[in-house]
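User: Some background: our group keeps a shared notebook of sequences we're curious about, and every so often someone picks one and asks for a predicted structure to add to the entry. Today it's my turn. The entry only has the sequence so far, pasted here. Could you supply the structure so I can complete it?
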Amino acid sequence: MNAGESNEAPRTAFRTAVAALAALNVVNNELAPGWSYLPVNALAGWGLISLARRDGVSRAELGLDPARLAAGARAGGMLGLGIGAAVAAAAVLPQGRPWFADERSAGAGIGGLAYQTAVRIPVGTALFEEIAFRGVLPALGARIWGRRRADAIAAGLFGLWHVLPTRHAARANPGMHRAGAGPAIAGGVAITAAAGLAFSALRNRTGSLAAPVLVHAATNAASFAAAWAVMRRSTP
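Assistant: Of course. Here's the predicted structure to add to the notebook entry:
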């Protein structure tokens, strides 16, 4: 087997993972009912890990080494608490409050808030996306381009992953709507790509996906809770 042939297997696996994620993005955002989000993402996460493992990727390369779990959890927990506090402070300020006026959270009661912040966001969003974009894609990509370039490519794909969600958010948020769909989407892609790089650095430093999962979950859950509180306050 020559070098070109030995390099083709990870390229095929990487392309397969990207294609699966692209299809999943459309399904979750445009086609599937809301109740399917958790089971579909759980199945997709299992499939991506299985794909990588069949390609010879180790648990450590995926950030799933049990020996690194505690270190990742400590780092992610501390950072997550700080980010959650910062989000809460931003939502309290008059200048920041309009950016949390997301109409999609307006109809959620206490049960809906609990489900979103304790289940859907941490498991369906943060855990799955970190498995995909800080675990599987960089691990497969590192065998093709090296770790740094693979992390950068995965971060760029993470930004593109947010095109459809940002479009929906722009429709539901008056501040983003006034800015225009194009700038809102471009900003969303840039911000999430930059966040992807930061999450990759955190994962590489700790050796565990636990760190970016916790930070990701804290950021999204705090943002949803802030939006819920802002909308409850503004609703007669």
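Suggested note for the entry: The two ends are 70 Å apart (CA to CA). The chain has a mean pLDDT of 89.
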